[in-house]
Amino acid sequence: MKRDRNEGIWDFENGMPPQDGGQDLILGLDGGTTSTVCICMPVFSFTDNSLPPDPPPVLAHAVAGCSNHNSVGETAAKETLERVMADALFKAGSTRSAVRAVCLAVSGVNHPTDQQRILSWLRAMFPNDVKCFVHNDAVAAMASGTMGKLHGCVLIAGTGTIAYGYTEDGREARASGAGPVLGDWGSGYGIAAMALTSVIRAYDGRGPQTMLTSRILHELELSSPDELIGWTYADPSWARIAALVPVVVSCAEAGDEVANGILLDAVQELASSIKAVVCRLGLCGEDGKGSCPLVMVGGVLQANKKWDIGKEVISCISKEFPGMLPIRPKVEPAVGAALLAWNVLKKQSQSGG
Amino acid sequence: MKRDRNEGIWDFENGMPPQDGGQDLILGLDGGTTSTVCICMPVFSFTDNSLPPDPPPVLAHAVAGCSNHNSVGETAAKETLERVMADALFKAGSTRSAVRAVCLAVSGVNHPTDQQRILSWLRAMFPNDVKCFVHNDAVAAMASGTMGKLHGCVLIAGTGTIAYGYTEDGREARASGAGPVLGDWGSGYGIAAMALTSVIRAYDGRGPQTMLTSRILHELELSSPDELIGWTYADPSWARIAALVPVVVSCAEAGDEVANGILLDAVQELASSIKAVVCRLGLCGEDGKGSCPLVMVGGVLQANKKWDIGKEVISCISKEFPGMLPIRPKVEPAVGAALLAWNVLKKQSQSGG
């Protein structure tokens, strides 16, 4: 095993009994912009062709901060990932020598060079025979809806939004997920920024009056739309702005036309991301009638209110692709990541690889 | 005179001869997000009712960095303002005792509380009888087109955009100028962000193909639209993104429909800001036919290319308000600020105040 630069993180392993013959483990990680989750799962049997246990057993669960290298820088991202894995193994009463596979799904992996770099971090942390996988966080979300099978389409709409599609033969495609500057409309940030813009436009006399004005000012404890300028300058974090989505939904439910228009636009944007990946990969076949899982995750899609953005997106997509099968995952994305690694191990075991 | 906290800045005054009986001065400041300019102007005669000399005499010109308190914080903004004024007075061979008025027009003054705070900084820096004026930077731009008269409408479109209107009886109105989060579409940032978004949409399969893709990637020395994500994350400064406007204009001139659409939208947005302030203040009279100056400044409006955004905005506005008189200022905004102060001194002198 290679030596680590952060020896302290793994010091706990020295006090552990030898793991030889113990339970083999898989680490599944979901690294987002707000937090990073690592779960530790046993490698359950490959002997039959059945699906993994439902729910899959989770031996340990650890949480840390942001591990998106774009947000916090490489050094901090790497240390966060290393610590959360050590924490999960420690909680599971095990060490790295028991690990068979690590599947890391982390936001900010947008390019093969990102993937290669993070993969090299992982390989330096673990023994050479550990299978390491690095993906975008969308992969974990997808796998959490399909119990580890990487096939279909996943739409994530929280603070940001991204759509990914995967074919059974290993091709993939992405749409959106490029951040607010590059137009992730339909995201929580996008919806809330449009609402704030509408308030300013109404105040300026450039747009219609809207209930959003009083509701948003009340929510933020401000007395005039003018003060929104200072409010956005004070802290332009996307999550802080995206937190206004419930206000927009409640205004739309109360009949506000401007808020309603913003949500309808968001539905079109989110649906267009799904359509783009479905078309590029031919996920619903040549006639568009084929069946295909559509995993939907993130705060924007989970509002079970009168105005249900997720439901409207499904309704919009189903017109064009009636075989799309919407799935709201029951397990967390980190479990999806671990199941994905388990599926790969299973295939390799069955093919004798 | 009050004692300064930054004594060092004004140390040069100790070596100056007494200014009693010397030339009275006005300081005019234009504080933007990229730089701050202070000019020193003599107080020329109030005896007749003529306009100020054209061009107005400038005794000294000093430049410093950003003085927008939203961008650099209050302490840094205040020190920048103090230093640039001291620098201008030093270059003019004079001291604060010769100053009759200071007119500071600085970006980021969006609320009366901003104005009051900056006014109190100024008053602490100068003798009690110095007239101090604090405005948004739009005021300096306006006055630079009207030789110090605060009447009409000014549209600024550089990295950001803002429109201000002023009536002869002292009312004013603003539109836009709220920053990118709050939808300053039509700004240089807004145009370029839309162009970047179009590149991503085309790449995703969510929007039409566009010449913007190859031109922008070439300009930024990137090889794939994917890399735009890292590029925007690396440094989200608005000016860096707004610098892509010439690429968008050249694509529109070459017939690219997407680029053309972005510029047409920008024209509508900029025109809507002007219309909003003209309507709120009744600047063109009840029938909209009255005459009114329209001062136009900023990089987005100054492109004398085949696709001339400023010309299109004027053409759009003139349909509704045929009496709008477009002005492209010949003096810099800091001179406008000084002329504004001169006009106030003149009025006070004529009314015996």
Automatic annotation (TrEMBL), chains A, B:
One of its GO terms (molecular function) is N-acetylglucosamine kinase activity. The keyword tRNA processing does not apply. The keyword Transferase applies. Residues 27-341 form the ATPase BadF/BadG/BcrA/BcrD type domain. Its EC number is 2.7.1.59. InterPro entries: ATPase_BadF (IPR002731), ATPase_NBD (IPR043129), Euk-type_GlcNAc_Kinase (IPR052519). It is an enzyme of class 2 (transferase). It comes from the Eukaryota. Keywords: Transferase. PANTHER family: N-ACETYL-D-GLUCOSAMINE KINASE (PTHR43190:SF3). Belongs to the eukaryotic-type N-acetylglucosamine kinase family. This is N-acetyl-D-glucosamine kinase. It comes from Helianthus annuus (Common sunflower). The lineage of its organism: Eukaryota, Viridiplantae, Streptophyta, Embryophyta, Tracheophyta.
